[in-house]
Amino acid sequence: MAKLNDKMKEEVREVVLDFFAEECEIDTEEITDESNIISDLGGDSLMFLALIEIFTKKYGQEIDLKTIGKYSIKHPVETIGELIDMQLRIIEHGNNIINLD
């Protein structure tokens, strides 16, 4: 778990945008918070897992994927903005994310 600050929030946003721009072969300027990961960008759930791995390494976290899976069933992610918010919650709360509601 990590205490979030504005710099971390901006870093997460940049990493997510750069990741999807590269994976989906589009410019970051074409991606907005409202961009649908699947229908607008052609992304998939494996990209979400890859991002979790990137952030867990970056912030030195051990995250149980089952916990994240349970949380995401209750809080599905469809847009880039929702994905960024979930990544921030994972970074901030780690495995305790399951206790959020």
Tags for this entry?
Non-ribosomal Peptide Synthetase Peptidyl Carrier Protein, Chain A, globular
Radius of gyration: 13 Å
Gap from first CA to last CA: 17 Å
CATH architecture: Orthogonal Bundle
**Helix proportion range:** 55-70%
- Judged by helices, strands and strand pairing, the structural class is mainly alpha
What does the largest sheet look like?
none
Task: Assess the beta-strand content as a share of residues.
Answer: under 5%
CATH superfamily: ACP-like
CATH names the topology as Non-ribosomal Peptide Synthetase Peptidyl Carrier Protein, Chain A
Tally of individual domains: 1
CATH class type: Mainly Alpha
Mean pLDDT across residues? 92
Cα shape: globular
Q: Please, could you describe this protein's structure?
A:
It is built from four helices and no strands. With 101 residues, it is mostly helical. The longest helix is centred in the N-terminal third of the chain and has 19 residues, at 6-24. The chain has one domain: ACP-like (Non-ribosomal Peptide Synthetase Peptidyl Carrier Protein, Chain A). Helix 1 crosses helix 4 and helix 2 (45-58) packs parallel to helix 4 (80-93). 56% of the residues lie in helices and 0% in strands. The model has no long low-confidence stretch (mean pLDDT 92). It starts with 5 loop residues before the first helix and ends in an 8-residue tail after the last helix.
